[in-house]
Hints:
Distance between the termini: 94 Å
Number of strands: 11
Strand content: 25-35%
Helix content: 10-25%
Bound molecules: FE2/S2 (inorganic) cluster
Oligomer: single chain
Order of helices and strands: HHEEEEEEEEEEHE
Amino acid sequence: MSNSFRNASPEVCPHCPLSHDRREFLRQAGLATMGALIMVGVPPGLAATTRPTRVSARSRRNRNPTYPIPAQDGVQIDHDNDVILVRWKNAVYAFNLSCPHQNTALKWSPTDAEFQCPKHHSKYQPDGTFISGRATRSMDRFSVERVGNDIVVNVNAMHKNDVDRAGWSAAAIVLTGAE
Length: 179
Ligand code: FES
């Protein structure tokens, strides 16, 4: 150890860019941060590498959202309940808003008359039938019931056409054309 180091004041190290006080402050701050992470249940070693977790399904506001029968062909997107309601060629369907591939919110393209996924570009017909892209099934349909002039959507009954083809096909209201 050199004389200059031994003779230096304890607060000032001539070989270090930081003063003793500043280093002590940073050490204490680091310990405090580590303590806070432990309190919220995050192991300190993971804190720098942990990414935000994407929520795959938001809680729906309404367990049985109800919509008037659309007067004409078209698409309504209910973001509060993550439901897409479609009237198409005298039938009404209710779809899960999430792409069946990786749960990205689907978008309707009026120009192309198809649903499109902005993430990996899967495409679907207005009745939810898969056209192309990375998804491996059609859009997921909810059970629907006609009550008077309304469509009641049962968001607890979702049908995936790769494992429940009959349920998926039945999840539609066929209109008479007079509505
Ligand atoms: S999330 Fe839609 S195609 Fe991948």
